[in-house]
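Students often ask why we bother encoding 3D structure as a string. The short answer is that it lets us treat folding as translation between two languages. Here is a chain of 343 residues written in the first language.
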Amino acid sequence: MRYRLLGNSGLRVSEAALGTMTFGDDWGWGSGKDEARKVYDAFREAGGNFIDTANIYTNGTSESWLGEFMDGHRESVVLATKYSNAFPGTDPNAAGNQRKNLVQAVEASLKRLKTDYIDLYWVHIWDGMTPVDEVMRGLDDLVRAGKVLYTGISDAPAWWIAQANTLAQLRGWTSFAGLQIEYSLLERTVERELIPMAKALNIGVTAWSPLSGGVLTGKYQGGGAADARMNHDMMKDFQPEGVDVGKVLEAVKQVAQETGRSMAQVALAWLQTRPVPVIPILGARKLSQFQDNLASFTLTLTEDQSKRLDEASRIEPGFPEKMFQRDLVQAIRHGGLRNQILA
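And here it is in the second language, the structure alphabet:
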């Protein structure tokens, strides 16, 4: 396992993160404790140090188990957890980005994780209502108190993230070092605004659901009745924007056959060809699945293979990028001299 600096920071994180939403069967699926421990140990043995969890995962079981698993080597783990979400209830402050939820959530996570600090604390999702200065000052207070070392933002619009980091930098507060987004061959709309924003502001990118909930592994393409039913149920709510799922899967399958690798490894290797470094969050219920995913880091796609995958999964850039590509706009945007301007 190699390591990357997380965005505009000196924090060294492994090129893959261990996703632990599957640690616990409280939700009716996931891993039992023994299997979760095997996955954790395999990740650590491979050199992985970046662990991703959240206070809501498996009703807190994920954090509690990690607190046990890290015993004796907590210092060498880059531990990331999140706050913001809560299941429906009667307390209006149980969810959201506000300071009250922030303080209550971090204290509860610290207890479950059996630690006195969190390396990377994520805003799990933008709530669309808490003032940006309240969020950034609240996170900065945790950093100054030593309870959090770095902060990150997950599932938020690019304009708000840019506003938040600009405000933090102007006021001397901690800015977001990491960005967590859904990113895969079947979800590339993040390339319109979020990826360019991350590149411009030097924010580290982590990708959740890099295999689109297992769709990119090809496991829903079987011919049996059970597979057909599962395929129908999965695809009923799975409608990636402007993407032909069958076309993408066929392209992945062809490259898998050429390389002698699994479809999952091909899909994960594609993420390493992106215009910014992408750290996939690998989560699996079984050790065998996790080991297969880890093997993707020994696969390097050829330029032709990467191009074919790009073309099969291509999305429309949308406005304003689509406008920028028009011949007339290109002609007048720089007075006809773009090729003579070194920039």
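Translate back mentally: Confidence is low (pLDDT under 50) at residues 223-234. Keep this in mind for the problem set.
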